[in-house]
Every structure is written in structure tokens, then in C-alpha cells.
Design a protein that fits this description.
Layout (H helix, E strand, L loop, with lengths): L10 H16 L13 H8 L3 H10 L14 E4 L3 E9 L2 E9 L2 H16 L22 H4 L22
Antiparallel strand pairs: 1-2, 2-3
Helix pairs in contact: 1-3
């Protein structure tokens, strides 16, 4: 399994992120860099999250995670109190514009739909993937799944691809 947990400025922070991911994926009997007893509070929180959601939490704690003005992945403040959703590395483009939205959460959900459609079920999302079951079906298109109050043109239909690589 190949996991990308982000970039860390300190070696110790990277090692701890690795340990936490290993504990979530393989349990407390797995080999870690630090004693498992150091992660007791983390293990309690970890139990309440799915593997995918917990790994997303770890990625967001990395030093290089893009935070911008929004607390959500792929979302930035736009002029006139609107929120813009944009995703990178899709369809051969460096960045793909999704649209502008009234709320930060609407923009985050639109990002999630496009991320799932283009990167598969292992896509990093802002919200629990189970809320996007229509987006995970092959052949669904973003015009049906992206909130209707996006002011911009919907994206053309996409094909969902699945990958064993976790981004």
C-alpha cells in the first residue's frame, strides 16, 4: 500500500504521521517509530473514524497542506463574499475551475464530487465519502451532483476511475 501523508518540516513529525497511519491501517501490533503508548489519545480518536477519513486528517496536519482562506480543501474566498472551488491535476490540467458558490460548504461539496469522479473512491475529500454515492457510480456527471446554485457552467461528464494508490 502506497500512502501519501504530506510533507513535514521536521523528521519527528513525519515519523509520527507514519506511525499513526500504520496504527490505523495495521493495528497496534505493527512496528512504529515511537512507543504505541505515546499515541493513546490518538488511538481513541482513531477508533471513531474510517481509515480514509483518518488518513485525510493526517494529511491536513502536514506542513505543506494548502490552507488558504478556507478550512476546506480546494476552496478559496472569491470576490463579493462568494466561495470558489477548484481542483488540481485533473484531465491533464494543472488546475480545473469548478465554480463559485454562496457558502464555503457548498464549494467544498462541489470539490468533493469532482475529486471522486476524477480520482476515484480514494480521492481526498472534505466530507465523508458516503454522502456522495451518486458521484461514485460510473458514468454519473457533475451536472447532476454539483449543487445547482453554482453560478458557472457545469463540468462536462467524466468517467470515474479507481486506483489502488491513495493520494
Amino acid at each position: 500500500m502506497d500512502l501519501q501523508l504530506g510533507t513535514y518540516d521536521e523528521e519527528e513529525s513525519a515519523a509520527k504521521a507514519y506511525d499513526l497511519a500504520a496504527l490505523k491501517c495495521f493495528g497496534t501490533s505493527t512496528q512504529t517509530n515511537f512507543p504505541v503508548t505515546e499515541y493513546e489519545k490518538d488511538l481513541e480518536m482513531m477508533e471513531k473514524k474510517t481509515k480514509e477519513d483518518y488518513l485525510d486528517i493526517l494529511r491536513r496536519k502536514s506542513d505543506r497542506f494548502s490552507r488558504g482562506a478556507s478550512k476546506y480543501r480546494g476552496v478559496a474566498r472569491h470576490h463579493r463574499n462568494r466561495w470558489e472551488a477548484r481542483i488540481g491535476n485533473v484531465r491533464g490540467k494543472k488546475s480545473l475551475y469548478i465554480g463559485t458558490f454562496s457558502t464555503e460548504e457548498e464549494a467544498a461539496r462541489a470539490y468533493d464530487v469532482v475529486a471522486i469522479q476524477n480520482k476515484g473512491t480514494n480521492a481526498a475529500t472534505n466530507f465523508d465519502k458516503s454522502t456522495y454515492t451518486r458521484s461514485m457510480t460510473p458514468g454519473s456527471n457533475s451536472a447532476c451532483d454539483v449543487p445547482s446554485h453554482a453560478e458557472d457552467q457545469p463540468l462536462p461528464p467524466t468517467t470515474t476511475t479507481s486506483s489502488n494508490h491513495i493520494n
